[in-house]
Every structure is written in structure tokens, then in C-alpha cells.
Amino acid sequence: MSVALQSLIGIISLLAIAYAFSANRRAINWRIIGIGLVLHSGFCLLFSKVVVARHMLESFSAGFVHMLNFSGDGARFIFGDLANPGGKLAFIFAFNVLPILMFFSGLSALLYHFGILQRVVFGLAWLMKRTMKLSGPESLSVAANIFMGQSEAPLLVKPYISRMTRSELFCLMVGGMATLAGSVLAAYVSFLGGPNPVEQAKFATWLLLASLMNAPAAVIFAKIMMPEDDPEHMSSNRMDYDHGHQGHFINALVAGTVEGLKLAAIVAAVLMVCVSLIALINHLSQNWLGEMLGVNSWIRDSTGGAFSGLTLQYLFGQLCRPVAWLLGVPWNETLLVGSLLGQKVVVNEFIAYLDLGRMKEQGLLSAHSILISTFALSSFSNFSSVGICVAGIGAMAPGKQQTMAEIGMRALLAAVLAGLLTAAVGAIWLS
């Protein structure tokens, strides 16, 4: 079976799953869904097949990678050889990745202060509002999530959240969980590209394109699973936003850097705890259950040593193997890609991208499967993000917090499906 046909089956399956979990199938506006699918594939084709657009994205990616080097300059000023990925201490996460998060957080704050980020967001929001007939706040929030985090993007539409319908709130949540922020995207480029600028530029291009495609994908699944059934009470048709220039730019830089420091500390703490818990679970499952069942040696032999025994990663792989196949992954590699998908949803995408980087270095996956995995993991859609959405957005509109808690798990499913759709479409057009 060809990759295109395999991925096409996957796309139909993903849409069917969303339809099965729709809160109101009769209210689905199929015009919005159709336009969303056209935009979704259109972005992929535009930036991969049209020479001018492709060169623009590649040039932007090269510039993005160049910016990573500047974060390294600051890290080496503070940490010396500890922050030198090519030095004798090799790649050290704390001194190479965490400074990237802080640098890009500060840079984003400056871009926001001078109104540059808002203008880019407004342009994309205008396109989605005109074509998909979304409300103004919906369009702005979904477009903003391409560049900003799931807690920061809703700030652009904070005055409207208390008046949003259930469908608008759902779209707001799905948009936040289905995309990536620029700061963490930079970290993933460093995971996958290593010290090689060419590889970094390639993965930066893929990740930027995936985040862009995930925006219309989020709307597609949001409007299938929670269609608008009360259009007369939508929050607003306007797209008002903060134009920046409030206070001195130094204040904006400091505030952004402090937020980046908080993000880096949270990421480091969560990763330490998650890796430790996974190691504990793997110790119990492999050394106790695996030995008792006598399956560890069989798993090692059958996977060519890719899995050491009955581990959490192996169980994730078996559970998500059919999903990986639907994305266009060859069956002999679906166990590894399925493992990444499971880790991404249950734990987080940081862990999954770290594991993908390891598989890439060890040559366990083909270039085709690496591409699909890179696209499929490019979102915040995991269980912890539901809590972040409910707490973060709920703090802006306490009266809507209960509603968001009720629809949180459904929003997570929609966000997961959005990321998988992007991977399946990418497999068709980019392979």
C-alpha cells in the first residue's frame, strides 16, 4: 500500500473519530470543516511546493537557528565550558536547552512590546476569520497560539472570555493544546538537530510548518466535536488586540526573561520528576512483571534491542501502533513511533522529543518516520495541559472555569487528533 493511501485512510479515520465524539452532530457546519481542510493542506503545499514561499520559510528557519547560537553566547558567559555542546562535557540539558527557553521568552516579550508579534498574529487571524467565519476572539486566540503558549495567547482575548459560548471556549482550549510556543519549539530544534546547523534548520522548518498547520487543524476538530449551536450569543465579531508600547522596552525584556526563567524551572522540575517516575515504573514492570512472565528476552530479541524489556515505552508502542500506521508509518517502525505518541499524550512532548532524538542518533527510524514523528509530536496535547488550560484561562474568567473543566478531556482528544491530522497530511505532501 502506498504512503499516500495509507495516510488518506488515517485522515478519514481521524475525522470519523471526531464525528463519533461530537457533542451535536446536527449543528456541524461542514463548510467550516471543508475550508479548514483546504487551509490545512494549503499551508503545507504553499510552504513545501511553491518555491518563493518555501525559500521564505527556509530563510526564516535559518534565521531562527542563528538565534539559537545567540542564546548559547549568553549561556557560555554564565556557565563557561558547561554550556559548550561540542566540548568535553558534551551536551548538557540544563546549560544548553534551558537558556534557550529564557532567551526566546525575553525575545518574544520584546516582539510583543513593539507590536510586531501582534501584527503577524492579526494577519493570520484575519485569514481564518474571513474564510472560516469564526468569531474575532476565536480567530485571534488560535492564530496567537502558533507563536505563544497556551497560557499567554488567551491574554489577547481576555476581555471576551467571560462572554464566550461553550463552542468558543472549546476552540480556545483546543487551539492552546494543539500548537507549540516559540520558546519550546526552539528547544526541540536543539534536541533533534544537535550541533549541526543544517539539521537544525531542517527541523526548525518542519516544526514551524507543523505549528502553522495545527492552527486550522485545531479549528477543524473543535468545530466537529463542539460545533457552535448558539451563534447569536457569540462573544464578538471584532478583532481588537493590544498594540504594545506600554512602558519601557527594558521592562518588557525583564518581564519576559523572568517568565522564561519560571518556564525553564518548571520544565526542568517536571522532566526530572517524569524521568524518575518512568524509571521507577520501568524497574517494576521489567524486573518484576517482565521477569515473572518471562517476556523480557523475547521483547529484546523481537525489537532488535530497541526495547530492553517490558517497559512503559514498549507498552505505549503496542497500544499506539495502529495510530502510527494510520499516519503513514511503515509497520516495522510503528512500535517505535507508537511509543513516542504514547509518551507524548500521557507524559509530555518534551520526553517524546528527547526519545525521538535518541532514536534518530541510533538510526532506529527512517527519515520518513522521523518526519511524521516530528509533526505528530508538535503540540501541547497531554493530560497535564488540560489542568493548565482550566487553571490559566479560568483565572481570567472564573465564571467559565466549571465549563472548561467539563469539556477539558474532550478538548484534549480534539487537540491530539489535530496533531495527528497534521502528521498524516505532512506524510502525503512532504514524503
UniProtKB/TrEMBL annotation:
Major place of residence: membrane
Domain Concentrative nucleoside transporter N-terminal: 9-82
Location of the protein in the cell: Cell membrane
Pfam family, one: Nucleos_tra2_N
Residues that span the membrane, as ranges: 30-52, 86-104, 169-191, 203-226, 263-284, 370-395, 407-430
InterPro entries: C_nuclsd_transpt, CNT_C_dom, CNT_N_dom, Gate_dom
Domain Nucleoside transporter/FeoB GTPase Gate as annotated: residue spans: 95-193
Family statement drawn from the similarity comment of this UniProt entry: Belongs to the concentrative nucleoside transporter (CNT) (TC 2.A.41) family.
The protein's name: Nucleoside transporter C-terminal domain-containing protein
